[in-house]
Amino acid sequence: xxxIYLLISISIIVAxxxxxxxxxxxxxxxxxDDYTPSVRxxxxxxxxxxxxxxxxxKSPKAKRRFFKxxxx
Length: 72
Fold this sequence. Notes:
This protein is an all-alpha fold. The chain has one domain (2-69). The chain has 3 helices and no strands. The chain has helices at residues 2-27, 36-40, 60-69. The termini are far apart. The relative contact order is 0.06.
């Protein structure tokens, strides 16, 4: 029976610690910005410039490799 009292008191102490941490986070402004996270996903992608690859050499094999690289 004494173990139950010990577990209840420890759980209350842990709950109070989490509550204090939550109050500190709210007071420090961690949850103030509600709008930016919903819009951030729209602007997450960066513009990527396409790579320009010139074929090495003038042999037909080099040209085939070049066009295979471009998926043509």
